[in-house]
Design goal:
Layout (H helix, E strand, L loop, with lengths): L2 E5 L7 H10 L4 E7 L2 E8 L2 H8 L7 E5 L15 E4 L2 E6 L12 H16 L7 H10 L4 E6 L3 E4 L6 E2 L2 E3 L23 H6 L5 E2 L7 E2 L5 H5 L8
Antiparallel strand pairs: 1-4, 1-10, 2-3, 2-4, 5-6, 6-7, 7-8, 9-10, 11-12
């Protein structure tokens, strides 16, 4: 799943930790920082070296950082995060917005265009209204969204466990690479869902270890990193 990070000014991210996030979520990365002149966004970065080269000079600023694992939409710069809701507001997301997105456009991008942007055009103060934030959180289910504006920061979804040393992480499973081993290899960059879904109900060899039966791409042991007891 994607890794979405929100950090305050004065806090620094470990490049080795971010490299792990990129290795587990390599469908494009990007960042937005809050500069004195406004928001600066760089996205559609494919290698970690290029990401770090561009991000490191802005490490001291308030920032959104995102590493994408494409569940909907083609792997392109346009579908990478952060998304500019407006010039003054950027968004990153971890999770899935049911009913949004398709083969070409990601669910995050479509949700932002069809829901959040129209809402904020109608009422620019909506995110400052507790009842609106509560309704938005109820509508996005288990998804997590972080927004960085020129003056304010917002988080939708998640809980206090997402914080570590004053930095917000949408998830930290990427630090345990066995749980993710090889999962990037099973998807083409065009995400042909019809062909992929046709295989889901068939039992076949795990694409990670090659031996254990798997009804999807990987056996339980490879997905969890834990040994599975076999029936005697």
């Amino acid at each position: 799943m994607c890794v979405a990070i929100l950090k305050p000014a004065g806090k620094y991210l470990d490049p080795d930790d971010l490299c792990l996030a990129h290795q587990a979520n390599s469908d494009g990365c990007g960042f937005t920082v809050r500069c004195p002149q406004g928001l600066l966004t760089r996205k559609g970065l494919w290698s970690f070296a290029e990401f770090w080269r561009q991000f490191e000079p802005y490490q001291h600023l308030d920032a959104l950082v995102h590493f994408r694992w494409a569940s909907m939409g083609v792997v392109t710069a346009e579908n990478c995060h952060p998304f500019a809701v407006f010039k003054e507001l950027a968004l990153i997301h971890n999770g899935h917005f049911g009913g949004y997105g398709g083969k070409e456009k990601s669910d995050t991008r479509e949700w932002m265009e069809l829901v959040l942007r129209p809402l904020l055009k109608h009422d620019p103060t909506a995110l400052d209204t507790p009842v609106v934030r509560r309704l938005l959180e109820a509508s996005i289910g288990r998804s997590k969204v972080a927004l960085l504006g020129t003056a304010k920061t917002y988080i939708l979804g998640g809980d206090k466990e997402d914080w570590e040393d004053e930095i917000w992480y949408s998830q930290r499973e990427y630090r345990y690479p066995r749980a993710h081993l090889g999962y990037q290899d099973v998807r083409s960059t065009t995400l042909d869902y019809a062909d992929d879904e046709a295989l889901w109900g068939e039992e076949r060899a795990c694409e990670c270890c090659g031996t254990a039966p798997a009804t999807m791409h990987f056996c339980t042991a490879c997905l969890t990193g834990e040994a599975v007891e076999e029936d005697e």
